[in-house]
Design goal:
8-stranded parallel β-barrel, 35% helix, single chain
Length: 276
């Protein structure tokens, strides 16, 4: 069974378009409010329906990993989770959000379809097991401090807890103190573990630990990262997008402007078709 077929079987709500396309996890970095989240979801769904791309709406209900204590962390856990629930219900798409501690797994699982383990926490055994035990799909982001091969242990932890529904997402590797680099050899290596593999095209362009205390980025290279990932054979893409990145409350420096999403995805489909 192909990785994309496996992913489609993971989520009953995900529409199998038989298009042969990659799947997409996309949305704002954080849930900033109901109106803007609904508007982003509506626009992305119109695009992905048109292009026959299986879609999962992404939004963090809380941002626990911030450089500065004064940075935006969220609008309230339950409020944000209810917005995610509404998007899933009204648009008929699966949703994904991050969890940060074991106690959050069951809470978030009541509202979303996919639980995401942040890169910094991918080795946290109790967190992985708690996510697995909810029965939800578990998307584990590869730590930027780990090799692709090391992620087989994260997969094993989830599966040994009785959950076969695992996705791995690459988001680059630490390259010096304030930059990341993507090693595309890691995508097929992680696919060899028998799970779908996603490329995070936005966080892999972060420039963390800036002296200002606000993470920087290179959003002009998002399409470059995405094109290479599709050419290598990534099963899915993760793209954070916003209608006004400059004023986004979290990670605006490396998000794709929402107006550029359709053009970007259209080009990526051509690459996907060329390699099939």
């Amino acid at each position: 069974m192909s990785h994309i077929s496996t992913m489609l079987n993971y989520l009953d709500k995900l529409k199998n378009t038989d298009s042969g396309n990659f799947f997409l996890m996309a949305g704002p970095c954080a849930i900033e409010g109901e109106d803007i989240a609904m508007r982003i979801a509506d626009k992305i769904i119109n695009i992905t329906d048109k292009l026959q791309i299986p879609y999962i709406f992404k939004g963090s209900y809380r941002k626990a990993n911030r450089s500065k204590g004064s940075s935006f962390t969220g609008i309230g856990d339950e409020k944000a989770l209810r917005i995610l629930e509404r998007i899933g219900r009204e648009f008929g798409v699966p949703t994904v959000t991050d969890i940060h501690e074991s106690g959050e797994a069951a809470m978030a699982a009541a509202y979303v379809d996919v639980l995401q383990i942040p890169a910094f926490l991918c080795r946290q055994t109790d967190l992985l097991i708690a996510a697995a035990e909810t029965g939800k799909v578990v998307n584990v982001k590869k730590g930027q401090f780990l090799s692709a091969g090391s992620m087989k242990f994260a997969v094993e932890k989830v599966k040994e807890a009785g959950n076969e529904k695992v996705i791995l997402t690459d988001r680059g590797n630490t390259f010096g103190y304030q930059d990341l680099i993507v090693d595309y050899r890691g995508l097929p290596e992680m696919q060899s573990f028998g799970v779908p593999v996603v490329m995070d095209c936005t966080h892999s362009l972060q420039q963390p630990n800036q002296s200002s205390g606000v993470t920087g980025g290179k959003p002009e290279l998002i399409s470059t990262i995405a094109k290479a990932a599709i050419a290598v054979g990534a099963d899915g893409l993760f793209i954070e997008t916003h209608p006004d990145p400059a004023n986004a409350k979290s990670d605006g420096a490396n998000m794709l402007h929402l107006d550029l999403l359709e053009e970007t995805l259209t080009k990526l489909i051509r690459i996907r078709q060329a390699i099939l």
